[in-house]
Amino acid sequence: MQLKMLVLSGAAVLLWLFPLTALDKKVGWHKFMQGLSLCGAVACAVSAGNIARTLAEKNEIEEIKTRAIKADVVDEISVATYVSQTQRQQEAELILTSPSVDVEASRQALEAIYSNDLQDSVLTSTSEADASDLALWWKVSAAELEGKSPTWIIENILNMKGRKFIEGKVRLVELRKKFGES
User: Fold this and answer.
1) DSSP for 137-177?
2) What is the Cα 20 distance to its own chain's centre?
3) pTM of the predicted model as reported, rounded to 2 decimal places
4) Confidence of residue 122 (pLDDT cuts 50, 70, 90)
């Protein structure tokens, strides 16, 4: 469209200048040709002006679209920033209002309730169980490193076959939880 506008503008200028320089004013039909040429020049100029106005309107519409898109992007960024800031603030408030002081006070109260004698007896009984579980775990982990299947481990290391197989699965899961492997 821009090329069409440029051609029409150039034609209008040529049609306006050509009759003034090339035709003689004394001959009658030359004056008629000058009139037609000037009318053609005006028509070309008006058409070029209409095209220019159409292009200007299209450019305005495109500019409005661009501004709307930029505004939407800025709005989305602002909303995302606000939401993340609100979430961080809520998390911080949750951390600050968490009952960690209450948990610590409860722990200290429970420690004061139990006597040292009770703790010693519990520790000796659990330490013997832990030692046997640890030895069993070493065998299980060695078998897993060799690539043995859980079924083989349950049947051959934990010695739980047949009806006790389900108990063996539970025991294997407990060992894994207790000694840090999941």
Assistant:
1) HHHHHHHHHTT--HHHHHHHTS---GGGHHHHHHHHHHHHH
2) 69
3) 0.37
4) very low
